[in-house]
Design goal:
The complex is a heterodimer. Chain A is about 35% helix and about 15% strand. Chain A contains 4 helices and 4 strands, in the order βαβααββα. A 4-stranded mixed beta sheet of chain A has the order 2-1-3-4, sandwiched between helices. In chain A, strand 1, helix 1 and strand 2 form a beta-alpha-beta unit. In chain A, helix 1 packs across helix 4 and helix 2 packs across helix 3. The longest helix of chain A is centred in the middle third of the chain and has 14 residues. Chain B is mostly helical. Chain B has one domain: Amino acid/polyamine transporter I. Chain B is about 75% helix and about 0% strand. In chain B, helix 8 packs across helix 12. Chain B starts with a helix and ends in a 13-residue tail after the last helix. The chains are: A alpha+beta, B mainly alpha.
C-alpha cells in the first residue's frame, strides 16, 4: 500500500443519524434550509497537505465516530511501524482524538492540529520526503 | 421455517443483487467512469468536499440511513404474512432501493454534488423544487408524529426503559462536553456511554417508571399522550441547542447500538434456531387493509426510502473519491437497510412467538398489529438476546432502549429539519417572521406533528398510528418517486434506457395513489376530518409528481429523438466536467 496520512475531524457539522433523519441537505443554496457547516481546522490542514504532498500519498479525512474504519487502520499502520503492546494502544488512543494527524502510523498531532505549514513540514519529515 | 434459513436465503439474494444487478446498473444504466473527476476532487476543500476512502464513506452513509424506520414498517407488515413482507423487502431492496440510492448518488455526483431538491429544480423543472419542499414538509411532520407515538407506546409498555433513556440525555451531554473541551477520542467515552446506558437497564428494571397516575390526575385518556407531549417539549429544546451538545454524542452512542443490535439479532437467530411462527401468507380478517397496495407503503424504509436520496445527494456525493465507488456505497447502503428490515421481520415472526397461536394473538387484526408492532419487535429481539444468555427481562429493556434511542434521535433531527423547512417556506412566501424567528419556526415544527400524534381514533390499540404510519410511508415513497423521476430523466437524456428506473417509479406511484384513494374514501366515510384533508393534500402532491415526471420524461425523450436526428448531443443538458 502507498503511504497514508489520516486526518481525524473535529466536533463540527450537522449531526443526527437514523433513517428519516440522517445528515441531509435537501437544498444547496439560499434559504435557511442550507446547512452551512463552519470551517473545520482539518480543512485548512488538508488543503496544505494535498497541495504539498505527492499524489501517491493517500490522505483520508475521517469522522471521529467512524471507529469501525479508524481503529483497524490505526492498528495496521502502527503495527507496520513496529509498534506493539502498550505503545500501540497509546498510539491508537491518541490517533482517535478529535483533530488528529497521523502520518504513516505515527501520531503527529492529537487533540488539536498545528498550523497548516507546520503540519505539512512534520508530515513530509515523517514520510521522509525532501 | 427456521429463521436462520430465511436469513441465509435473503443474504444470498442480497449478495446476488449486489454482485450482478448493481454491476449491470453500473455498466449499462449509470455507465460509471473511473476517470470522471468527482466533485470531491474538483471542489476539494477538506471540509464538505473531500475524496474519501469508499469503506470510510460507506460507514458514514450507512449510519446516516439506518435507524428505527426500517424496524417499525416491517414489524407492522408481517400482519399480511412473512412471505409478502420479506418478498417486498428483498425485491424492493434489489430492484428499487438499490436503483434509487445508487442513482441519486451518481446523478448528484454528475451535477456538482447538488442536493436532490436542487436537482429536482434543475433536471425536472423549477416547479419541482416547490413540490419537493411540500413533500418534505409532510414527510417530516409524519416522521415526528409517528416516532413520538412509537416512543410513547414503548415507554408505557416498558417502564424499565424510562430511566436508561432519560439518563442517556445528560450522559450524552457530558460526553459531548468532555470531547469538545478535551478534543480527545470519541470512541472511549461513547463506549463508556453505551456501557453506562446498559448498566442503567438494571436500574430501570429495578425501578420502573410509570406515568399512569400522573396521566390520570391530569385527565389524559391514554398515558401515551402524556409521554407524547413531554417528548415534543423535549425535542423543542433539543432541536434548538447546538448539535455537538447532545445530538452528536448521542449519535456516537447510537452508532455502537446499531452494530450491537445487528450482532444480537444475527447471533440470536443462529444460536437459538427460532422457527418462524407467522403464516407465510396470513388469512387476514375481513375488512382489513389488503396487502395490495398497503404493504408497499407500510414498508417504505427497508424496501425503498426517499430519505436516502437526501443523504446520498447531501453529504455522501461530496465525498465520493471515484465515481465507480458509487456502486459500493449507494447500493450497499440500500442492502444494509434491507438487512435491518429483514431482522425486524424475523424478530416479529420468529422471536416474538413460540407458537402459531401465540403469534395470531399478537396479530389478530390490523389495528392491534399496527399498535403493537414495535413492542413485538422489542419482544422478538429480547428473545434473540436471551438466546445468547441475557436474561429475558433485561433483554426486553435492552431492545426497547435501542429502538427508543434511534427514534428519539430521529425526532430530534426531524424537528430540527422541519424548522429549516418552515423557515424556507417563510422565505418563499415572504412571511419574514417565519423565516427569522427561530422560536416561532420551532413551535410550528412541533405543534403540527403533536396534533397528529394526539389524534383520537380507534382506541388504545392504535388504529390512528397505523394510519399515520401509512401516510408517512406514502410521503416517503413520494420523495423516492421524485428522486427516481430525476434519475429517469437524467438517464434518458444520456441516451440510455430508463426502464429499470421507470419500473420502480411507476410501481411506487401506482401503489401510493391507490392507497391514498382507498384511505381518502375510508376517512370521509368515518368522518375523520383531520386525516381526510391531509390524505387529500398528499394525493394532490402525488398527482402533481406524476404530471411533472411525465412532462419531464416526455421532454427528455424528445431531446433524445432530436439527438438521434443529429441536431444536438444527448449530454448537452448535463453538466460534464
Amino acid at each position: 500500500m502507498s503511504r497514508r496520512v489520516v486526518l481525524v475531524r473535529g466536533a463540527r457539522g450537522p449531526g443526527g443519524g437514523g433513517c428519516c433523519s440522517g445528515d441531509v441537505r435537501p437544498f444547496d443554496a439560499g434559504g435557511q434550509h442550507h446547512h452551512r457547516t463552519p470551517d473545520d481546522p482539518v480543512g485548512a490542514v488538508y488543503r496544505a497537505l494535498r497541495t504539498g504532498l505527492p499524489d501517491d500519498v493517500a490522505i483520508e479525512v475521517v469522522s471521529p465516530s467512524n471507529w469501525l474504519w479508524l481503529v483497524p487502520a490505526l492498528v495496521g499502520d502502527g503495527r507496520r511501524r513496529g509498534l506493539r503492546g502498550a505503545a500501540l494502544r497509546r498510539s491508537v488512543r491518541a490517533g482517535l482524538a478529535l483533530e488528529s494527524l497521523i502520518a504513516g502510523g505515527s501520531v503527529l498531532a492529537s487533540g488539536g492540529l498545528p498550523p497548516p505549514d507546520a503540519a505539512l513540514a512534520a508530515t513530509r519529515a515523517e514520510l521522509g520526503l525532501p | 421455517m427456521p429463521a436462520v434459513v430465511v436469513a441465509a436465503v435473503v443474504g444470498v439474494l442480497f449478495f446476488l443483487g449486489y454482485r450482478y444487478y448493481s454491476s449491470y446498473l453500473a455498466r449499462k444504466v449509470y455507465v460509471l467512469d473511473p476517470a470522471f473527476v468527482t466533485p470531491a476532487h474538483e471542489f476539494n476543500d477538506g471540509n464538505d468536499f473531500v475524496p474519501t476512502n469508499k469503506h470510510v464513506l460507506f460507514g458514514h452513509h450507512f449510519t446516516s440511513v439506518a435507524g428505527a424506520a426500517p424496524i417499525v414498517g416491517p414489524a407492522i407488515a408481517v400482519f399480511w404474512g412473512w412471505g409478502p413482507a420479506l418478498t417486498w423487502i428483498v425485491l424492493g431492496t434489489i430492484f428499487a432501493a438499490g436503483v434509487h440510492d445508487f442513482g441519486s448518488l451518481v446523478v448528484s455526483v454528475r451535477h456538482k454534488a447538488r442536493s436532490i431538491g436542487t436537482l429536482a429544480g434543475e433536471v425536472v423543472n423549477g416547479r419541482a423544487r416547490g413540490l419537493f419542499l411540500a413533500i418534505i414538509f409532510f414527510l417530516l411532520t409524519l416522521v415526528n408524529a409517528v416516532f413520538a407515538v412509537v416512543i410513547g407506546n414503548l415507554f408505557v409498555n416498558n417502564p424499565g426503559a424510562v430511566i436508561p433513556i432519560v439518563v442517556e440525555i445528560p450522559v450524552a451531554m457530558l460526553i459531548g462536553q468532555y470531547i469538545y473541551k478535551t478534543r480527545s477520542s470519541a470512541l472511549i467515552p461513547s463506549i463508556v456511554g453505551v456501557l453506562l446506558l446498559y448498566a442503567l437497564i438494571l436500574v430501570g428494571n429495578a425501578v420502573p417508571v410509570s406515568l399512569d397516575g400522573l396521566a390520570e390526575t391530569l385527565g389524559f385518556e391514554q398515558t401515551r399522550n402524556l409521554w407524547v407531549i413531554l417528548l415534543f417539549v423535549y425535542t423543542w429544546v433539543a432541536s434548538r441547542i447546538p448539535v455537538w451538545v447532545l445530538l452528536q454524542p448521542r449519535d456516537y452512542i447510537n452508532s455502537h447500538q446499531l452494530f450491537i443490535a445487528l450482532g444480537v439479532i444475527s447471533l440470536g437467530v443462529i444460536i437459538g434456531l427460532n422457527t418462524i411462527q407467522a403464516p407465510l401468507v396470513n388469512d387476514v380478517p375481513e375488512g382489513s387493509p389488503s396487502f395490495f397496495p398497503f404493504l408497499f407503503i407500510t414498508i417504505a424504509c427497508g424496501a425503498i426510502s426517499g430519505f436516502h436520496s437526501l443523504v446520498a445527494s447531501g453529504t455522501t456525493s461530496k465525498q465520493l473519491d471515484r465515481e465507480t465507488d458509487a456502486r459500493y456505497v449507494g447500493y450497499m447502503g440500500a442492502v444494509g437497510e434491507g438487512s435491518l428490515a429483514t431482522g425486524a421481520v424475523l424478530a416479529a415472526t420468529a422471536g416474538v412467538a413460540a407458537s402459531q397461536a401465540e403469534w395470531q394473538a399478537l396479530y389478530p387484526d390490523f389495528a392491534t398489529a399496527s399498535g403493537g408492532a414495535t413492542g413485538n419487535f422489542v419482544d422478538g429481539v429480547a428473545v434473540f438476546a436471551n438466546n445468547i444468555g441475557i436474561p429475558l427481562d433485561i433483554a426486553t429493556i435492552f431492545a426497547a432502549v435501542v429502538v427508543i434511542s434511534f427514534a428519539a434521535t430521529t425526532m430530534d433531527t426531524g424537528v430540527r429539519l422541519q424548522r429549516y423547512v418552515v423557515q424556507e417556506i417563510g422565505e418563499l412566501t415572504g412571511i419574514r417572521v417565519l423565516a427569522r424567528n427561530l422560536s416561532l419556526a420551532t413551535t410550528i415544527a412541533v405543534v403540527i406533528p403533536l396534533a397528529m400524534a394526539l389524534l383520537p381514533g380507534g382506541g388504545e390499540a392504535g388504529y390512528t398510528f397505523g394510519v399515520l404510519w401509512q401516510l408517512f410511508g406514502t410521503t416517503n415513497q413520494l420523495t423516492a418517486g421524485l428522486a427516481l423521476a430525476v434519475i429517469a430523466v437524467w438517464v434518458t437524456r444520456r441516451g440510455r434506457s430508463p426502464v429499470v428506473v421507470l419500473i420502480p417509479l411507476v410501481f411506487l406511484l401506482a401503489m401510493t395513489s391507490w392507497a391514498l384513494l382507498v384511505n381518502l374514501r375510508n376517512f370521509v366515510r368515518d368522518d375523520q376530518w383531520v386525516l381526510a384533508p391531509l390524505d387529500a393534500v398528499i394525493f394532490l402532491l402525488a398527482l402533481w409528481l406524476i404530471v411533472e415526471a411525465a412532462l419531464a420524461l416526455r421532454g427528455a425523450f424528445r431531446d433524445r429523438t432530436t439527438t438521434d436526428a443529429g441536431e444536438r448531443p444527448a449530454v448537452a443538458r448535463d453538466e460534464p466536467r
